[in-house]
Amino acid sequence: MITYERLDDVQRQVFLDITCFFVNEDKTYPCYMWEDCEYHPYNAIEILCLMSLIKIKDDNTIWMHDQVRDLGRAIVREENFKEPHKRSRVWNHQEALSILEQKKGSKKIEALSLGSRGVIITPSEVANLRHLRFLDGNEMFLVGDFNNLLSNLRWLSWRWCPFEFVATNFHLVNLIILDLSHSYVSEKWIGWNQIRVASKLKVLDLSNCNDLMRTPDLSMLVSLERLILEGCCNLIEIDPSIGKLKLLTALNLNGCHALEGLPYEIGCLDALTEILMPCSSYAFKLPETIGNLKSLLTLDVSHSRIRMLPDSIGGLVKLRRLNLSKCSKIKQLPDSVGQLQSLVELDLSSTSLGHLPDSIGYLKQLTVLRMSHIIGITKLPRAIGLVEKLEELEASGCHHLTGEIPEEIGRLSRLRILDLSFTRISRIPITVYYLSNLQTLNLESCYKLNELPQLPPSLRCLRWAFDTLKFFGNRTYMPEGDSAYHSSIVPLHEVEELAFGKTRRFWPQLLSSSLREFEVGNLSITSQTSSLREFEVGNMSITSQTDCSLLSNLSTLRLQSCSISVFPEEEKVECFFFRIK
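The structure assignment produced for this chain is given below.
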């Protein structure tokens, strides 16, 4: 309570709204409402976070402890403990319905949540709600003349809105957010004629409106910034009027399976920063005009049947994220991809690409390249060494990626993760030693790889199938016999995680004093000298003479499908290997 009293008036308004309606909700929508109410939401949220009253989670939702939520609701109740209609916010559905049914609405009420479906609302029931700015209800039936009513409403959640619309003069001139998700509206819904007057509307949520086959004429909604059509599974066409929405920043078409393409007019959306495309079952096409979207930051066409990117894609000068994963019909990238000089993340996983264009070397800002499970890829281009800011390179499951990794990879001084697992590469170049920031190297199931060069000292995680190796650095040993072991092999001193898949033998001198996680399967661990004192764990044997003091920091040991037995002829066996913190 002391913390709450330190907030100023507008910060308290935001705090109380959250406690009553927005815990575990995305903060994007309410920020639009708070901004229009001059509550300065971004500053208020920062202050609430600094005071530990809320947290913003990674998925942009607002988290609040239950006790803090209860405190906020108690503050609202104390506005009038006995009469809910004299409080600023009513979140209890039964109390809200009672206020409407008994026509007890007052100018004190700012926010109501009805919850129940099938509620009939008449003008007389809302006549006194002059300051109502938030109304949340499901399948509400508005009946009568609403002239000059609800003029202060900023937020209307009208989920499961019926197709029948019998209200007249329903002119919500100050409306900012309209949520019609899961509704029975279509492009022929008569309610569009009255909603179009909401010239201040910034968010229109039509997600999961399954009767919608074509978007209505939206040209009058000149302030619209977010259009959500996610899950409109019968939507076939986007009306060309979308080109009039000059302030539109986000277009969500995810789940619009029947949509065949975007209109030519999409190129007029100068402010558009994000497009989420549908997982279409048709040959989805992007218009050439998409290259005109100079403000676009995210283009996500994953899981779609798009066959190619237009050459104009290079015009997306601000694009930071391009997701083509699981676009199984894409066989090649246009060379103009190299013009995406702001691109930070490129996901090509599970496409049908046959090669990467050399123009990829021009992507000077690229930090993440995902290209796993691309069957047609046979090699990495030498130009990969020119992507100087690359930090993550994932090529797992490219089963036809064979031969040598190009030596130019050693130029990637910022590379942290290199995943070449389940490929058929046969050689890692010695230049890998110059990857001074490399922390994770995954060579699991690379059965053609029988040699490892000297690895960089920055390495923290190493995964591989050890049986295939014949060389490690400049020191030779043979997996078939201890006698070939060379005593000058140096441990990977800083490695914290080691994993070996279907491996029979390993020399403990390669273990690390920093090791935190050790995973083995069908593995034999032995010292360089023979010994009778040993533990046997399934198909794995561990000698008691092994210097396991190196494992003093081990916290995780995975021995899958193993059993432990001790040789009976030994009177004393030190089980130090299994003493895990």
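Interim note for the steering committee: Residues 2-77 form one domain. The longest strand covers residues 111-117.
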